[in-house]
């Protein structure tokens, strides 16, 4: 498989802006330190970000030249805070870094409940001001914001009585798809679902898992759990497969336009914001847990285990945190809308 098959192309209508933070940054022919150096860019230079792959950005610079450069040395995104004033850390030991990248130096660690003013937003990172006056970056998937806490359309606690069903696909003798590296879909769906469930419970959401261990649950039982609980949202979590090894990306399915599509749209929009996988869109899907479900329902395909690179990506803790945070935020927005 050619490496170009796994490149992510931005789905935005216009390229994202970025600024070089290194004194001199090498631009390469591909997203790897082994790729040929095709140019250098000085600190402070503005570039256009036209794609991403792992820890690399594809950029346009110097009158339409293109190449790849490390995300670590490109400050990407917008300085607009979209009304958010502060971040609130969700976990003890949260890493506060020197740049908007998981490979950047940790300058400080914060604890659950600590609040920091927002200076800017860069891709999926917040730039924050520390108590000593210095700045740092924190990943958006490990925080909430004051605007989200104070808005009825944010990630505030839903009204009493609202229930969310999180459905990890497959289980027991039904392994689901098996990745090229041996990943079992049933294990990965459970991992993702538990992360979403735990985030919802910590926020006070009345959440229910259709299975909490490696147990087979019939499709009828999954739908029954949704109907019995009079669920306000049912979210079925899956990972995809294809006979085409280069197939990649995330998809959200709905069955009934009136009942399901709004939930599917909210979740998909949030997922696209959080992860750099190909956006395959929101699609009609004739799946049992959607078709036979009388409650609002969506089925998520969160990446292709048949694609070696994507199988590795979706199995990482970083991806699991990002995608679970996206689903959590979207579900709470939906039930509060």
SSE blueprint:
Blueprint: E1 8-9, E2 16-20, E3 24-28, E4 37-42, E5 46-53, E6 56-61, E7 65-70, E8 74-76, E9 86-89, E10 94-97, E11 106-110, E12 115-122, E13 125-129, E14 135-139, E15 143-145, H1 146-150, E16 163-168, H2 185-202, E17 206-209, H3 219-228, E18 233-240, E19 250-254, H4 261-274, E20 279-284, H5 288-291, E21 297-304, H6 308-315, H7 317-336
Parallel strand pairs: 16-17, 16-18, 18-21, 19-20
Antiparallel strand pairs: 1-5, 2-5, 2-8, 3-4, 5-6, 6-7, 9-12, 9-15, 10-11, 12-13, 13-14, 19-21
Task: Give the gist of this structure.
The chain is α+β, with helices and mostly antiparallel strands and 337 residues long. It is 23% helix and 33% strand.
What does this structure look like?
This protein has helices at residues 146-150, 185-202, 219-228, 261-274, 288-291, 308-315, 317-336; strands at 8-9, 16-20, 24-28, 37-42, 46-53, 56-61, 65-70, 74-76, 86-89, 94-97, 106-110, 115-122, 125-129, 135-139, 143-145, 163-168, 206-209, 233-240, 250-254, 279-284, 297-304. The chain has 337 residues and is α+β, with helices and mostly antiparallel strands. A hairpin with a 3-residue loop joins strand 6 and strand 7.
């Amino acid at each position: 498989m050619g490496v170009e098959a796994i490149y992510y192309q931005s789905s935005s209508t216009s390229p994202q802006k970025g600024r070089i933070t290194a004194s001199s940054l090498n631009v390469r022919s591909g997203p790897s330190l082994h790729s040929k150096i095709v140019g250098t860019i000085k600190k402070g230079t503005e570039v256009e970000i036209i794609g991403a792959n792992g820890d690399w950005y594809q950029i346009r610079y110097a009158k339409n030249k293109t190449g790849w450069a490390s995300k670590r040395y490109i400050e990407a995104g917008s300085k607009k805070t979209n009304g958010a004033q502060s971040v609130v850390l969700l976990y003890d030991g949260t890493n506060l870094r020197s740049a908007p990248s998981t490979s950047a130096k940790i300058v400080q660690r914060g604890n659950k409940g600590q609040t920091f003013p927002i200076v800017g937003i860069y891709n999926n990172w917040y730039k924050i001001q520390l108590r000593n006056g210095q700045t740092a970056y924190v990943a958006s998937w490990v925080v909430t914001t004051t605007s989200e806490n104070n808005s009825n359309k944010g990630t505030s606690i839903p009204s009493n009585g609202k229930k969310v069903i999180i459905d990890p696909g497959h289980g027991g003798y039904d392994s689901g798809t098996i990745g090229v590296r041996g990943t079992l879909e049933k294990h990965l769906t459970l991992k993702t679902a538990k992360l979403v469930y735990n985030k919802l419970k910590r926020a006070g959401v009345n959440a229910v898992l259709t299975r909490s261990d490696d147990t087979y649950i019939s499709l009828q039982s999954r739908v029954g759990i949704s109907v019995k609980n009079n669920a306000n949202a049912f979210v079925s979590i899956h990972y995809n497969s294809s006979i085409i090894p280069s197939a990649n990306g995330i998809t959200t399915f709905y069955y009934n336009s009136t009942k399901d599509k709004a939930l599917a749209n909210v979740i998909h929009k949030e997922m696209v914001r959080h992860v750099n996988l190909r956006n395959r869109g929101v699609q009609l899907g004739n799946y049992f847990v959607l078709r036979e479900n009388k409650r609002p329902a969506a089925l998520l395909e969160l990446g292709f285990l048949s694609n070696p690179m994507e199988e590795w990506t979706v199995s990482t803790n970083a991806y699991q945190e990002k995608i679970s945070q996206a689903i959590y935020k979207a579900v709470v927005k939906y039930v509060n809308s």
